[in-house]
Amino acid sequence: MKKRDVSVIIFYDGNKRILLQDRSEISKFGEEWGFFGGGIENGETPEEAVVRETKEELDYDLKDFSFFRKFHYLNHEFDVNLYVFTARLPFKKFIVKEGKRGELFSLEEAKKLKVMPWDYLIIDSLKEII
What pTM did the predictor assign? Predict the structure, then answer.
Protein backbone atom coordinates (compact mmCIF):
# COMPACT_ATOMS: atom_id res chain seq x y z
CA MET A 1 0.00 0.00 0.00
CA LYS A 2 1.29 3.45 -0.95
CA LYS A 3 1.15 5.86 2.03
CA ARG A 4 1.48 9.57 1.31
CA ASP A 5 0.87 12.95 2.82
CA VAL A 6 0.08 15.46 0.09
CA SER A 7 -0.64 19.20 -0.08
CA VAL A 8 -2.54 20.66 -3.02
CA ILE A 9 -3.69 24.13 -4.01
CA ILE A 10 -7.03 24.74 -5.71
CA PHE A 11 -6.92 27.96 -7.70
CA TYR A 12 -10.37 29.19 -8.72
CA ASP A 13 -11.63 32.16 -10.70
CA GLY A 14 -14.71 34.39 -10.61
CA ASN A 15 -16.55 32.06 -12.99
CA LYS A 16 -16.38 29.13 -10.53
CA ARG A 17 -13.71 27.34 -12.53
CA ILE A 18 -10.72 25.54 -11.06
CA LEU A 19 -7.21 25.29 -12.46
CA LEU A 20 -6.02 21.76 -13.20
CA GLN A 21 -2.71 20.43 -14.45
CA ASP A 22 -2.49 18.28 -17.59
CA ARG A 23 -0.56 15.30 -16.23
CA SER A 24 -0.87 13.05 -19.29
CA GLU A 25 2.88 13.10 -19.94
CA ILE A 26 3.98 12.78 -16.29
CA SER A 27 1.25 10.55 -14.85
CA LYS A 28 2.37 8.19 -12.08
CA PHE A 29 -0.91 6.29 -11.67
CA GLY A 30 -2.83 6.75 -14.93
CA GLU A 31 -4.39 10.12 -14.13
CA GLU A 32 -4.62 12.64 -16.95
CA TRP A 33 -5.44 15.74 -14.87
CA GLY A 34 -4.71 16.78 -11.32
CA PHE A 35 -4.32 19.58 -8.86
CA PHE A 36 -1.08 21.46 -8.42
CA GLY A 37 0.86 20.28 -5.40
CA GLY A 38 2.61 17.18 -4.20
CA GLY A 39 4.15 15.19 -1.41
CA ILE A 40 5.01 16.70 1.93
CA GLU A 41 8.71 16.22 2.66
CA ASN A 42 10.12 15.18 6.04
CA GLY A 43 10.05 18.07 8.50
CA GLU A 44 7.80 20.15 6.25
CA THR A 45 4.36 21.44 7.22
CA PRO A 46 1.46 21.10 4.76
CA GLU A 47 1.57 24.90 4.30
CA GLU A 48 5.30 24.87 3.52
CA ALA A 49 4.78 22.01 1.07
CA VAL A 50 2.02 23.77 -0.88
CA VAL A 51 4.11 26.95 -1.13
CA ARG A 52 7.14 24.98 -2.35
CA GLU A 53 5.13 22.90 -4.82
CA THR A 54 3.40 26.00 -6.25
CA LYS A 55 6.80 27.60 -6.87
CA GLU A 56 8.15 24.41 -8.47
CA GLU A 57 5.12 23.73 -10.66
CA LEU A 58 3.85 27.22 -11.52
CA ASP A 59 6.83 29.49 -10.77
CA TYR A 60 4.55 31.45 -8.46
CA ASP A 61 5.27 32.65 -4.92
CA LEU A 62 2.10 31.63 -3.10
CA LYS A 63 1.26 34.00 -0.26
CA ASP A 64 -2.50 34.53 -0.07
CA PHE A 65 -4.17 31.15 0.42
CA SER A 66 -6.46 29.40 2.90
CA PHE A 67 -6.67 25.94 4.36
CA PHE A 68 -9.86 24.28 3.13
CA ARG A 69 -9.96 20.75 4.50
CA LYS A 70 -7.99 17.60 5.20
CA PHE A 71 -9.17 14.50 3.36
CA HIS A 72 -8.22 10.90 4.02
CA TYR A 73 -8.48 8.36 1.22
CA LEU A 74 -7.94 4.66 1.85
CA ASN A 75 -8.36 1.65 -0.38
CA HIS A 76 -6.39 -1.54 -1.14
CA GLU A 77 -3.73 0.45 -3.02
CA PHE A 78 -3.50 3.89 -1.38
CA ASP A 79 -3.51 5.47 2.07
CA VAL A 80 -3.39 9.20 1.43
CA ASN A 81 -3.78 12.25 3.68
CA LEU A 82 -4.60 15.28 1.55
CA TYR A 83 -4.22 18.81 2.82
CA VAL A 84 -6.26 21.02 0.52
CA PHE A 85 -5.71 24.76 0.25
CA THR A 86 -7.58 27.26 -1.90
CA ALA A 87 -6.77 30.62 -3.44
CA ARG A 88 -8.36 33.01 -5.86
CA LEU A 89 -6.56 32.69 -9.20
CA PRO A 90 -3.95 35.47 -8.99
CA PHE A 91 -2.73 35.33 -12.59
CA LYS A 92 -4.17 35.14 -16.10
CA LYS A 93 -1.26 33.41 -17.81
CA PHE A 94 0.00 30.12 -16.41
CA ILE A 95 3.70 29.32 -16.42
CA VAL A 96 3.43 25.58 -15.99
CA LYS A 97 6.79 24.03 -15.20
CA GLU A 98 5.51 20.55 -14.44
CA GLY A 99 2.97 18.83 -16.62
CA LYS A 100 1.91 19.75 -20.12
CA ARG A 101 -0.28 22.79 -19.33
CA GLY A 102 -2.86 24.26 -17.01
CA GLU A 103 -6.51 24.67 -17.88
CA LEU A 104 -9.61 26.03 -16.17
CA PHE A 105 -12.63 23.74 -15.74
CA SER A 106 -16.04 24.09 -14.16
CA LEU A 107 -16.67 21.61 -11.35
CA GLU A 108 -19.02 19.63 -13.60
CA GLU A 109 -16.37 19.45 -16.33
CA ALA A 110 -13.69 18.45 -13.81
CA LYS A 111 -15.81 15.54 -12.53
CA LYS A 112 -15.72 14.02 -16.03
CA LEU A 113 -11.91 14.05 -16.30
CA LYS A 114 -9.58 11.17 -15.51
CA VAL A 115 -8.13 12.21 -12.14
CA MET A 116 -6.95 10.34 -9.06
CA PRO A 117 -9.84 8.73 -7.13
CA TRP A 118 -9.49 11.11 -4.17
CA ASP A 119 -9.63 14.14 -6.47
CA TYR A 120 -13.32 13.44 -7.09
CA LEU A 121 -13.95 13.84 -3.33
CA ILE A 122 -12.24 17.23 -3.41
CA ILE A 123 -14.05 18.39 -6.55
CA ASP A 124 -17.43 17.51 -5.05
CA SER A 125 -16.66 19.38 -1.83
CA LEU A 126 -15.58 22.58 -3.63
CA LYS A 127 -19.24 23.45 -4.24
CA GLU A 128 -19.24 24.68 -0.64
CA ILE A 129 -16.75 27.47 -1.27
CA ILE A 130 -16.62 28.50 -4.92
Answer: 0.92
